Amino acid sequence: MSTPSLSTRLAAEFLGTFVLVLGGCGTAVLATTNPDVGVGWLGVALAFGLTVVTMAYAVGHLSGGHFNPAVTLGVAAGGRMAWRDTPAYLLTQVAGGLVAGGVLLLIASGQEGFSAGESGFASNGYGDRSPMGYGLVACLVTEVVLTAVFLWVILDSTDSRAPKGFAPLAIGLSLTLIHLVSIPVTNTSVNPARSIGVGLYAGADAVAQLWLFVVAPIAGALVAGFSYAVLFADDEAVSLPEAMET
């Protein structure tokens, strides 16, 4: 099967990132506010994992199913996509996240008295904006390490030696696990597009802390990508779209 055109891959990345942010952050914003019937942190973790599973199966064979700038950079560092395509992927993913955040804000604003700034709007944070008050260093370490784990799962579950057809499940389940660990710490980013997509609507305090949730996931992804190329290099490695076809 021929590699899809760049425009097709970008459309798939936009759609996948849109659904990820709308589904995951939407669950956090809309479905956790009622203490009696809300889904809680477990529900949010499952929502993020399920969106990745469904969209990876839906469009992963077209674009590789990144839906995350950190994933794109880590995949490129691991030799699984061309660096020349990364800028277009990154811009498209951020755009998809921002559009999803705008749609979510429109929906959430339908409730009388809703304020994105006061509610937090599923944004990430450290210090007094951490769900459980974790400091800057703890949040930085959390995001770097867990993003690296996420990339190792992605790269190893899609190489030629892995069981075929199960990569989206492994990737989605790993994202669920990552959320279970880190929602109390940072509200879980591991994805700059997810953080920007809601953070820019959540007020000045959220925007001021966005840098961490761009820098840390990218750092973790690059560590994982370069180390994968050295430690786990696959002589028959294929690009992520090709890997998702099998």
From TrEMBL:
Keywords: Cell inner membrane, Cell membrane, Membrane, Repeat, Transmembrane, Transmembrane helix, Transport. It is found in: Membrane. InterPro entries: Aquaporin-like (IPR023271), Aquaporin_transptr (IPR034294), MIP (IPR000425), MIP_CS (IPR022357). It holds the Pfam family MIP. PROSITE patterns: MIP (PS00221). It is a multi-pass membrane protein. The chain crosses the membrane at residues 12-33, 39-59, 88-111, 131-154, 166-186, 206-231. GO terms for cellular component: membrane. One of its GO terms (molecular function) is channel activity. Belongs to the MIP/aquaporin (TC 1.A.8) family. This is Aquaporin Z. It comes from Nocardioides bruguierae. The gene is aqpZ.
